[in-house]
Amino acid sequence: MLGAGGVAWGALPSGAEEAPLTNEVSYDGDYVQSLERGLLVIRAFDADHPRLSLSEVAARTGLSRAAARRFLHTLVHLGYMRSDGSKFSLRPKILELGYAYLSSLTLPEVAMPHLEELVAQVHESSSVCELDGDDVVYIARVPTKRIMTVTISVGTRFPAYATSMGRVLLAAQPGEWLEEYLASTSLRGLTGHTITNPAALRSELRKIRARGWALVDQELEEGLRSLAAPIRDADGRVIAAINVSTHAGRRTLDGIVEDLLQPLLATASRIERDLASSRASARSPSGG
Q1: 24, 52, 132, 221: least surrounded by Cβ within 10 Å?
Q2: Is residue 10 included in any domain, yes or no?
Q3: For the CA atoms of the chain, what is the radius of gyration?
Q4: Any domain includes 155
């Protein structure tokens, strides 16, 4: 995310001590330059500079000592910073400034950076789905190269029973709901591999529930293999599923489990952690 002048928030630009704030930006009448400078004072503190003197803050921001003093003492008064008389440091209350953003994050926004990391690691496409009626609907996706005849994008829907993510989500449903689903859903054979017998699907879902992941071999489309795991909320409820998909010619079933399962489970865990953090921050911001 960029701030004024294209500077990335969260860290001073390279060489910031030698190149402090300038007035090169053309400000309009709605621009509050004092807010920019106050944020620059906050950003002067980082892992390498957790405690700074007034002179050091002035040097790192390019502000005069008088201006830096006003900003620092205002932040101390508001509880965002502390001072021991010679050095200043941030207090936990500073985290409140990020809580509004964190609490507004949706599952796709939380998941996308993790999907990108997973795809870069395993070189296979990855998606996140939610259950919507009898279908799964894609809410986030990072592709590599196209391996399906149908183009998948956010909003794409597939029958839950024939997909790895759908089976993870079905396996998490209460028994009564699942029995109603199996009684009302037509299990059409989408390929020669698709499970179309309710008893066989019920047995497969029991296995998925026990081991915590699903592997589907060419049941949605010939040549497509997919491995999926659940994404749980802070209460342990399965709210979505994440997968990696590959072509049958690229990996054997054993190879998929051996190479992709642990990265997939680790990614699901990181998404759950960040999702829980965003929800927790919305409920109880630190009082510093």
Answers
A1: 24
A2: yes
A3: 25
A4: yes
H-helix or E-strand spanning residue 81: strand 81-83
Task: Tell me the per-residue pLDDT of 100-110, one tens digit each, with 9 for 90 and over.
Answer: 555 556 888 88
Domain for residue 288, yes or no? no
Looking at the fold, whether 121 and 178 belong to one and the same domain comes out as yes
CATH number for the domain harbouring residue 28: 1.10.10.10
In a domain, 231, yes or no: yes
> Domain of 58?
4-90
Residue partners of 95: CB distance under 8 A and separation at least 6: 281, 285, 286
pTM > 0.70: yes or no:
no
pLDDT-derived band at 33, boundaries 50, 70, 90: confident
Q: Categorise residue 84: left if φ over 0, alpha if ψ from -120 to 50, beta otherwise.
A: alpha
Residue 8 has pLDDT above 90, yes or no: no
DSSP structure class, residue 93: G
Calculate the average pLDDT of the chain.
Answer: 84
Of 114, 70, 126, 103, residue with least CA distance to 260: 126
Count the domains in the chain.
2
Q: 83: which strand partners?
A: 88
Residue whose C-alpha is closest to residue 276's, from 100, 96, 103: 103
Residue ending a domain, choose from 90, 123, 157: 90
Give the Cβ contact number of residue 274 at 10 Å: 18
